[in-house]
Amino acid sequence: MSSYLRDTTLGRGKCIARDPQGRALRLVGTHVDITERKRTEEALRHSQAFLESIVEHSPNAMWISDDQGTLLRMNQACRDHLHLRDEEVVGKYNILKDNLIEAQGFMPLVKDVFVKAATARFIISYDSAAV
Predict the structure, then answer these.
(1) CB 94 within 8 A of CB 71
(2) Alpha-carbon gap, residue 128 to 87, rounded angstroms
């Protein structure tokens, strides 16, 4: 059992009556076993770490954008391919506002990814040295 699962109960209480010396006479509260919740949270953390590892170590360049097209993260293959650092583009680049994608005629495909959850395959010709 991991150290995270050691404390698997959750208790809350409140004193509602005291004697003249201030000692508790009556308490109300709850005590709940949260073992399953802790296991689920730990499994989710492991799953997220596994997915992060797959994305980061993939030989294929990939990035993740929010639903508005803004780049949220890119993997190492993408950084290497584009010769860019995260701080240069993360939160700044928006694929839906990319004039080069528009000029190369790929914007309808890109928009279908966001609107229809379609899969799009195309090659964008970038001159990253000019960025």
Answers:
(1) yes
(2) 15
